[in-house]
Amino acid sequence: MYGDTEIRSHDIHLTSFSVFDENFLSFAKNLRTTKPKVGKMKICGPKLSLCGLIISVWGIVQLVLMGLFFYINSVALIEDLPLDEEYHSLEDFYAAANRAYNQNAYNCWIAACIYVLTLLLSAQQFYMNSRVTAN
């Protein structure tokens, strides 16, 4: 015979049949006693978060400097510009080169900003891992 077991937790009512085993009933009883872990958000371990910190700092430094060198039209970086092989006049070449230098500088700075986001995420993960291992 299937009887009803009623579990009350504040205003939550859970009706189960005797088909469910003891584990489910104990789980349902403990629903109100378990507290969710809010704010932990531990995604990666301590070694990966430290690696992310180091790579992010290096990426920020490198991309900011490369963006600066592109912005001041460094001749050493001309091979990295998407330029055509031939131009009709020298002014057309200078205009295309200036546009390409500026575009590459902005691309480097945008990538550096993305690295700032990964730095913040890695720093948060490193902090969370250091708190867990200290406790």
TrEMBL record:
How is it placed in the membrane, per its record? Multi-pass membrane protein
Keyword Membrane, does the record have it?
yes
User: Which keywords appear in this protein's UniProt record, sorted alphabetically?
Assistant: Membrane, Transmembrane, Transmembrane helix
The terms describing its cellular component in GO are: membrane
Q: What family is this protein classified in?
A: Belongs to the RNase K family.
At the highest ranks, the source species' classification is: Eukaryota, Metazoa, Ecdysozoa, Arthropoda, Hexapoda
Q: Can you tell which superkingdom this protein's organism belongs to?
A: Eukaryota
- Transmembrane feature ranges: 50-72, 104-123
GO molecular function terms here? RNA endonuclease activity
Would the keyword Lipid metabolism be found if you checked this record's keyword annotation? Answer: no
Task: Quote the subcellular location field of this record.
Answer: Membrane
Q: Which residues form a coiled coil?
A: none
Organism listed in the record? Drosophila pseudoobscura pseudoobscura (Fruit fly)
Main localization, broad class: membrane
Which protein, by its recorded name, is this? Ribonuclease kappa
